[in-house]
């Protein structure tokens, strides 16, 4: 009866499209057959096992997985893992592998073996004749997992490689030639951008995309989906106005400037405008004249850097450089920078050397990068909470894989306090009390500053702890691995994407039995995160693979989450006079409401960003199709010959080599195509920055954006042909053909890649209101 009810419930969830509603019955029914093959495969030698995988590859090539093929792939993978790693995949890992092989996002709890499940799925796709990219959240995990799983792949006759920042072009080409390639999402994206600027087919490093398996799928597909990866060419040093930075540094909140409740906007008051104008030696009214628009823009950017970005929260200053902090992971966001002069403004604020400023040659969002793959699957510990986004933006469904051993972690009720200071005292007491029992403790904080403040307070009461944050993320694997030792206290920023399990008793397991007896790892959250997924990721560090453990969150009605998203706290909520603790259920409802609002805002930003970038991606795709035609055919030579037949004839005579002739024409035309695309991106940035004010005239900003962007794009191909023809017409011919440098065909001699830390689109209405509010505040 219970089984029947369970089946009916699953079917009902499927019908109404509830999150986490993928029907697993089909895959569960295949597990006995996978197990039945085990004795047969055990008798094979390593060579025979590899040969059997090769025969399956011949059978499967470019066809979809049927049940029989899924059974065979999973059985072969389980046997290969058992031999290569000494690890026999559990049924739930096999279930996860099947979910990945059928293009789902599988949710598997921390410690349940996602890495092996992902490797077996990647091998399965490769056996099917597909090139597979396993997309990770950082370079460390890409290399670690590729090297760790390589023996498994080898037994299955599958080749594996990885890409990382230090790799040469040749090393990258070699890695991408493997059946399976591991790489950080940014690194794979940067290679896409580099390939888009090559002038010879021989310089391409990536083959056509086929399958992507995304690790930490919620983080990559949702949190970083709208992050643009950028390829820039060198122009000069950033031109931040240091004089303006010094002026803004003297301004005071609520006297010279004000900020909105969300902490997203800052504006000058009348007093602030007077101080700035006087410091610049101009009249107040002149500050807002069109002639002074550049200076006013510099003031606004510097004010944003001064008022809204906080050191050790939003960024670090390390080794004389400003380094952004990834809020979702609590670590340095490698290669990320702010756009539109804000990076230079922060550098001026902190008085460090300015970084190079470049012309943007091309960019791609993470979402658009992954949309290139015909087949996408993913794995994570927290997918159900973002099932709506995964379905809406990627047409992916979530399959919830049950744990191998029931989770017995005790999730305690949140403890809520009136003020952050009262909350902090309670956290210190909680750590002291639990530490006295010998249980290991993991404390999850919101940012670097909080982690270090808490560590200092614990040190004053002789409680030693290890801190893991953006300052020492290079040692994170070693720190996390020892967080389960008896008596250990680890204070960390966000735990997402850390990639290392916390084993009770530490890496050597010496005190495991004792720690288990004491109750396992105790997790403490110092505040609720803006996303329930991040809460779940922190909790999930305890109770892995059936271990005992517990988790508790502390919160305050004056936490940033509440103040930014639900500041209107109901009246009548009373706190204990001595401790400040609140037991009224209304307080918890308010915090839960604030978290839902924060998640809703994030989803709305994602939707709005995608509405704008979807057009840009479509235009980029169309132009890349044309560019690829230019790259691979004689199209450029045909265009130039038609435009100036006599000059083209002279060039042909000089070179006396058809291949060289076509390549020279190709380089000329590709230069102009790439330059015009770069100009188009700059134009769209300008349109984007002004578009929201058009709503005041009852115009829909998105429609206006399309109206401005589409006609300009349609000019690019024709204009590129015209410019290339003009280059040929005006060029002086030599024995080597055209001196491209003298002809003005100069590509950037230095290029670099970075990610833009930017949420450019709130809702159109909200953006408009903020702009108007800012204008009114200045009057």
TrEMBL record:
ATP binds at residues 93, 111-115, 501. It catalyses: ATP + H2O + cellular proteinSide 1 = ADP + phosphate + cellular proteinSide 2. It holds the Pfam family SecA_DEAD. It is a peripheral membrane protein. GO terms for biological process: intracellular protein transmembrane transport; protein import; protein targeting; protein transport by the Sec complex. It is found in: Cell membrane; Cytoplasm; Membrane. Belongs to the SecA family. This is Protein translocase subunit SecA. It comes from Amycolatopsis rifamycinica. The gene is secA.
